[in-house]
Structures are given as structure tokens and as C-alpha cells.
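Obj.: predict assembly geometry.
Materials: sequence records (below).
Method: joint structure prediction, all chains together.
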Amino acid sequence: MSGAALPVLLLAAWEIAARTAVVSPRYFPPPTVIAATLSRLLTAGEFWGDALTTLSRLAGAFLVAALAGVPLGLAMGLWRPLRRALEPAVAMLYPLPKIALLPLFLILLGVGEGAFVFTAAVTAFFQILTSTAGGTATIDPRLVEAGRNYGARGVTLFRKVILPAALPAVLTGLRLGLGLALITVIAVEFVAAKSGLGHLVFRYWQMLLTGEMYAAFLLIGLMGLGATRGLRAVQRRALGWQEEIGWR
Amino acid sequence: MSRPVRRWRLDLVPLILPALVLVAWEIASATGLLRAVFFPRPSTIARLLLAQVADGTLLAHLGLTVARLTAAFVLAAVPGVAVGLAMGMSRRTREGLDPLFALLYPIPSVLFLPLVSFALRQEEVAVAVTAAFTSFFLVVYTTMTGVQQLDRTVLEAARHFGAHGRRFFLTVLLPATLPAIFTGLRLGLGYTLIVVVAVEMVSAQRGLGALLWLSWQILKVEEMYVALVTVAVLGAVLTGAVEWLRRRLIPWAQDIAEVGA
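Observations (raw C-alpha cells):
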């Protein structure tokens, strides 16, 4: 209960400051007004279309990234020559802010969903690839050795030994990738798209509809919280036997 | 991903793939297989890049982006490490701040731009503060986890040998947490670069992100590639610099997030 003290205190201070016009209620409407706006817009169905757009972009980007990133990451982790060939290119592209690729993709794919989704997918892809390859390459060799000694080869070795050993890193990569994909989708919507929650925040900002702006902002925050918490729960369930690699 | 024990030597294998891609691109654009309007030849881009470096225009954009990046990073890193250490050491601080941070952390930084620019009328300040948001939380949580994961035995031993207060903090706790702090700073720096570029794309007239976005809008494709290459090099140089610093300052520790984050 005490955990909620600070947020509640801040919200109360904001409410009072806005009501008494210590801060301009035009720019910082009281939290109760924002909450009322959010529930009004949600019941009026205004947000659902854009929320759905954002979610489907996120799903598309995440799927593309995972389907490409996990297999390639596993392959890089297991096969040294491939790792040596790709690692420098990956190391060069990994720190590149992928949002900077948006104009390129807009040219390549035209102004539309393809470019938006692809930009987010590339962001998540590199995260998933790096985590998966790193996790696979650093599997304890004794595990593989033991598996071999007990007669596991080929597909069996992969399914029974390598995949479970790499799974924590893969799942961490997927979770971080999902977070990055959401961030990129929102940023792309904010910058370029004409739909989606990120665009709503931008549009309301330009129109100075601050109540609506904060409402959309809040909805995105809740979505982000839900996405990362959800995947963390999945990870915990799938990996009951193992502590998480890395810190989050 | 590279193991720190690898000795430095010239290794040409990794250069094969990028070189092949560039050569193929050059030939495809030159022969019209790729539309040169959208895919100018790499040699053309390189020439424009050199020309823009020579006349100073590119460096002006780069300088502005680096200045914003530095300001945002300092705004995120200094309070981030302090709050992270405090949250790691004191349970009450942790329980007090965590619910608030957990709610704000997943919100993409760019979205703070409207809110921050209402509060801070100075545009440049607003850009720096916006870009600092998520990095701050990254640094806080990495540092905090670093403190929490310290080996209790070491801390106990230090106490038994009489280390207390400031001395305990400076000679035991802080050095032991340094690897985690470094990881947080590395992640935070990368993240700050993302947000600075994104914010420049939306709202700035100058800086690499603005150059990228504006040259796309007027279809100056070659300039767009120049900006893109510069951003990529900036990202790679920053990552390399942090890695170099880490090996210098804390050679005993591996980056804990090499796999995880």
C-alpha cells in the first residue's frame, strides 16, 4: 500500500496545482479531467480504431522480427563461420537508431504500412538476433558434451539440449525486442503515420487538445506495461527451472 | 558478443560481406538494375559525404546532434546512477519510487516531447529532457539491480574488516557495482541516441535527424544516405568508445548484459 504513496501524492499535488491554476490547466489539465476524458473517449469508441492499428502494427513487426531473428540467431550461435561473417555487420547496425531507417524504407516500400511495420521489425530483429546468438554461443559446452555422450545427435541434440539451454536468452531477446518494437511503432506513428495511438498524441498536441493528448499518452503507457509484464510472466512460466539471464 | 580475451589482429574475413554488398550495389546502380534515383551508387554517396565534411555542413549537423546527445545523456546518467544506488541500498527508497517508475518506464520517450515542451519553453532544453527520460530509467534499474546482486559475503567481510559509511561506499560498494553501472550507461547512451534522432526528425530544423527527414521530404536521396551513414557511424563510434572505456576502467568484469540486454 505504501508503494502507491508517491504516485498518489504527485497526482494529488498536480490536481490541486491545476485546480488552483498554479500550473496552467490548459497545458496540464487535472488528473481527474484526464481520467474522465479517457473513459469518455473509450466508451465513445474513439480510441479503439487507433489502438487496434497500433496493436496490429506491433504484432506484425514482432512476428517478422521473431521469425527471422530467432532462427538466424541460433544458426549464428551454433555455426562459427556464419557468426564470423555476420558479426561485424550486426555490430555495425545494432547501435544504429533504426528510426533513422524510416526514410529509406519509405522510399523502398512507399509511404504506408509496409514501411512503418518494417522499421519496427528491424529494431526488434537486431535485439532478438543479438540476444539469441549470444545466448546460443555461450551455452555451457559441458551440457552439449554430456548430451553427446548420452547419444544425442543432430535434431535430438538440438531439441533436447541446445534449444532448452538457449531458451532463456531467446526469451529475453523476444521480450526486449517487443519493447523496442512498441517504442519504434509509436515513434514512427508520431513522426510519419496518419493513424495509431502515437499519431493521436501528436495530432492532439498540434491541436492543443491536452486532455485528449494525456488520455492517449496514458493508454500507451498501460499498453507498454501490459506487454512487458505479460511477456515476463510467460518467461517465468516457461523457465521455471532457471534464473533469468541478464537483468530484465 | 565478442569475447574480451580475443587478441587484436587484422582479420579480413568479417569485411567480406559488407564489401560484397557495396560492390554489388555499385554495379547494380551503375547498370540501372537498381534505380539510381533511389539507390545512388555508394561511390556517389561517398563523394558527397566527403564534400559535405569538407565544407563543414555535415559537421555542423553532427555537432548539434552530439551536443543534444551529451546534454540528454548527462541528464539521464548523473541522477540515474544516484537514484539507482539509493534504490539498491535502501528498501524504503526502492518501494517508494518503484511504482511510479514502473508506470513511466515503458512509455516511449518521444511521447514526453509535448508534455515537456509545455513545461519548458526553451526548445533545446525540452529536446534534451525528452531524450533523457527513458535512459534515466534504464540507468536507474540497471544500477539498482547491480547493487541488489552484490555478493553478500563480500559486503559482510568488508564490514568485519571495519569498512563503514563513506569508506564502505567508496571502496567496496561502488567498485563492485561499477560493471552494472557501465552496462546501464551503455544501454542508456544507445537509447538516448535513438530518441535524439527521433525528436530531431519530428521537430528540429538542424541536426542529423532533421537532415535525414528533411532531405527525404524533398527527395534529396543522396543527402539522406549521407545522413544515414553519419548516424550509423556515430552509433558505432559511441558503442566502441564505451566498450573501450569499460575495458580500461574495469578490465576484471564482463559486461553483465552481453547476453541479456
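Conclusions so far: Chain B has one domain: 40-260.
To do: check interface contacts against the pulldown list.
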